[in-house]
Specification:
By secondary structure, the chain is an alpha+beta fold. Helices cover 34% and strands 36% of the residues. It has two domains: 121 residues, Beta Barrel (Small Protein B, Chain: A); 30 residues.
């Protein structure tokens, strides 16, 4: 059965990213993979907590992503933590390269997903949050959760 070209299936997300970083911009990039990596991704055997992107010689490379070995690919296995090339337009790479040279900006992966039959990576241009910013974010999230609970409890009592 064929999937539509715009069908998205998320394989892994970097949940730690929204806690540790302030996201400024998001980008979508393709990724160069070997066959056993794609098969392993279909089984969602990927870890991306410590991933980051390095731009050198007008090319973008993804570091720190671990795609586990595919058990059926006996002698044609891939290296688990290898550096993978990202597929971006030349002008996007130039733009990201200049922004990462600015003090404090980092390029990290947010999620890996299938878009149709292709594997894509969502990248984010981020800055590190300070400790007090993390506390403030947690405080607002807790307050919003309490408001939602109160509204749900109030709505439940009206029925």
């Amino acid at each position: 059965m064929k999937t539509p070209k715009d069908h998205v299936k998320v394989l892994a997300t970097n949940r730690k990213a929204t806690h540790d970083f302030e996201i400024h911009e998001k980008f979508e990039a393709g990724i160069v993979l070997v066959g056993s990596e794609v098969k392993s991704l279909r089984d969602a055997k990927v870890t991306m907590a410590d991933g980051w992107v390095n731009i050198q010689k007008n090319q973008a490379f993804l570091h720190g992503i671990q795609i586990n070995e595919y058990s059926q690919a006996n002698r044609w296995q891939h290296e688990v933590a290898r550096i993978r090339k990202l597929l971006l337009h030349k002008n996007e790479i130039a733009k990201l390269g200049t922004k990462t040279l600015v003090k404090g900006y980092t390029l990290i992966p947010l999620s890996i997903y299938f878009k149709g039959a292709r594997v894509k990576v969502e990248l984010a241009l981020v800055t590190h949050k300070k400790q007090h910013d993390k506390r403030e974010t947690k405080k607002t999230a807790d307050a919003q959760r309490e408001i939602d609970r109160a509204l749900a409890h109030r709505d439940k009592g009206k029925r």
